[in-house]
Amino acid sequence: MAVTANYETVMIISMKKGEEGIQAIVEKFKALIEKHATLKNVDEWGKRKLAYLINKESEGYYVLFDFESEAEFPAELDRIYKITEGVMRSMIIKKEVE
Question: Which of the four CATH numbers 3.30.70.60, 3.20.20.70, 3.40.720.10, 1.10.4030.10 does domain 4-94 have?
Fold first, then answer.
């Protein structure tokens, strides 16, 4: 049996994608995580002001995912974040066991 761990990931989506484009990206990553991991929670923080400009944009759409997966999946998820148009920033954190 494979060893799993809990992870948390947040991504910032460009507001230039529009409401439908943003929801399409959220659904894409939700489906990807559900396919390769156990999705525990999706928390859409919505539109927020950025601390500094990213790609000449001052606002972004924030989404947080909590999931449990094998150790290999976060690296693949990070790779897909980087090649997905519209994802301005992302971060994946391994959560400590409580």
Answer: 3.30.70.60
